[in-house]
Amino acid sequence: MLNYTLCRGKTETDLKGNPLSIPIVSEVTMRTISKGQQLPVPGISADTCRSGLETEPYGTVLLYHDHGTGGQFRSELKTGTDSERLPGGRFPTDSFILLPGMPGCDLLRLCGQESLREDNGNIGMMPGHRKKAHRRRIRTVMPDFIYMAGRIIRKSGQWFISFGKMNPFVPLRNSVCRQSAFASG
Fold first, then answer.
1. Contact 5, 17 (CB under 8 A)
2. How far apart (Å, rounded) are the C-alpha atoms in residues 169 and 5?
């Protein structure tokens, strides 16, 4: 499908010349071919949105077209922290429940992103049934990092956590811990 963008623009006045409280950003696109078939009359579509952002119209249009990404992250926050059905019917109650889950969700996403870095040297340690991913969901990070079986051992007056020798995620966990300790210190 071929699309030709005719115009992107931003207007801050209405048709009578009065200033708008929030500017309108628009993109007009002309389509001449649809699924390999030429159209007898070009199809013209216009996308408009109100935006108070101080960006170029092109950047605002890109953000407008990518508006579903924020919803996806909100959905992942709610499913990852098991808060799909919030207990309160009021916003202050629900925000009180979601606020403690946000830093935990961010830490789990950081662990997932860190585990995807190839310079960790841990990609070869991943189990064979996993495909190379560009991002990891919280639901897959939690079993790999949080639910690992381990023992607490006291040796020479110090406490240690011991994981199994066959667990492929132990080097990855150690790398994430080193990276986060380096970043915080």
1. no
2. 48
Q: Name the β-bridge partners of 31.
A: 3, 43
DSSP one-letter string for the chain? -EEEEEEEEEEEE-TTSPEEEEEEEEEEEEEEEETTEEEEEEEEEEEEEE----S-HHHHHHHHHTTHHHHHHHHHHHHHTT-SS-S-SSHHHHHHHHHHHHHHHHHHHHHHHHHH-GGGS-GGGS-TTPPP-S---HHHHIIIIIS--EEEEEETTEEEEEE-TT-TTHHHHHHHHHHHHHHH-
User: Residues 12-24: pLDDT tens digits?
Assistant: 898 899 998 888 8
User: Six-digit token pair at 165?
Assistant: 């020798």
Distance CA 92, CA 28 (A): 41
Q: What is the pLDDT of residues 8-67, one digit of tens each?
A: 888 889 889 999 888 888 888 888 876 777 778 888 888 888 888 888 888 888 887 777
Q: Where are the domains of the chain?
A: 2-66, 76-184
